[in-house]
Design brief:
506 residues; Rossmann fold; Helix Hairpins; 4 domains; EC 2.7.13.3; alpha/beta; 19 strands; 20% strand
Length: 506
Amino acid sequence: MARRTTANLIENGAADAVDPAQQFLRLMSHEMRTPLNGVIGMINLLQNTPLNGAQRAYAETARQSAEHLLGLVNDLLDYARLEAHALEFDLVPVDLEGLVRGVAELLSPRAHDKGLEIVWSVAADTPDILADEGRLRQVLFNLAGNAVKFTENGGVRISVECADTDPNRPRLAFIVDDTGPGVAPEARDRIFEEFGHADSSDAVRHDGAGLGLAVVRKLAAAMDGTVQVEDRPDGPGARFRFIAPFDVVAAPRGRPLEGQTVAVRSPHPFILSAAVEQIAASGGLVAADAPVALIDHASAPKAGLAPHPETGRAIILLKPSERDLIARYRSAGFHGYLIKPLRRASLVERVLAAVGNVASEAAAPAPSPEDDRVAPARFAGTRVLLAEDNPVGALLARTLLRREGCVVETAATGAEAVEAVSRARYDLVFMDMRMPGMDGPAAARAIRAAGDSTPILALTANAFAEDRRACLEAGMNDHLVKPLDAASLRAALARWTNADGHAKVG
């Protein structure tokens, strides 16, 4: 059961009075998101059409500017909410690995576009916890996103470890390291202040208003925690550390690589350390002469992708954009691949498959499943009902769904969605939260009351805990945050559709 707590962030106890100006700001921030989401979505569609070099550069600049503006609106909304009233926490069991991995994967396209590596790890003795998952994700996303923004070379690392040994309510440390310029000692308090920057030129150079870290500090205080910045101990760059106490809901994870040794080869220290920690968290050991080696593409032979001396026991590490190299590495004798940032479950599966192949060369190993970040989409014939009243939002979602092979029907109101589900069968329903008349949650409740169990995914501009709770309480299964993009949509389709049981078009 979820447990709610309230943390009062208003000085002098003025929790009951809502500043009209801040209430207006919150309302206008919501209204501004809709056209901004439309702008970003349409630019993304434009970038997938034939463009010459100059047009592509213009479109990319427009997309970056629109995303910056949306980020600023989101920061203003978050800050207004934190300043205006008591903050409610929705405490649920949190899968720390899933949370940290999700943040890293969400930021990986931005990091890879800059030539950066982004990695994550959760220490072996770290338990799952009771927390507000949305607020915790917001803290990590702001810290790691800030690191990606200010880092020009190298990478960003997100890690979690126990800061003390209390078995019932340990303090956990969420650490973000980067290889950026670092933060001068005299600026380390100022950057957590409203509109604060380490340097007066930062707001211009990095398109920031200085609200993101102020929001992080307020959220950290609300969780009885602290956030600070210091020099990265292993080299140039900054280390941001958020520490807070949490209730434990599960014991530390299993050790499926117990007794196994693995070699790791990468020229990038973050890739190396994260892989080593994920192997250790799985019970394995790292040794140079191990029977199975994880080899970063950056350190693999480049000329013709020649076989490595560890042929048959080597696993190549690739970015999603390097997916075209998978077949060539396999033909060169590599046993399989892993996509960066690494997933611990995939690492374990690939290593155990390679170990099995080494132990019995005569037995053909079972094929490893394709990583969904590089696997081709297979959703042809999937029937989708899209309930969205905004024409631009509907065009974007419909276009992306049809590119995945889906058969799409549309509804402009919640009442139309309920009527459509009553007369036809769908594999999936995408439901906008805010529609005229019957809104998304009301429509979902009506569908569930009629006994229909079709998966319903909310489309919302907000990622707050109360929005997620409203979706689930209405009977929805999941939610996607606007603006929609192809990767998140494809992942949602993979989670909630059954390729062998599509609804029949009729």
